[in-house]
Amino acid sequence: MDIQIYQIAFSAETPAQVESGYRVLDNLANPRPDWREFWQSWLKVYEKLFNICENTDLPLNQSLTATTSYGDSFQRKVFLSEQIASLLLAKESHSGR
Length: 97
What we know:
The chain is 55% helix and 0% strand. The protein has 97 residues and is mainly α.
């Protein structure tokens, strides 16, 4: 099963809004007055991901906690969690903020 972060946080239309090369490097790359609001949004999405990974009764749990063949066999959830900030910033830039 192929899992995308938008399945957890947003809608099926979200991938069309995110440019393929869009990545966040660090906090200083995007200094904004609403940074606190951004991190609160990030936490909401991350908590959803965390809860899915902790609840073995949910269908996405098995896919998210499966190991990859990358490096030291990390779980897929690690790679999805790394993309949350990029996705939120991309979504925000398309909403006119």
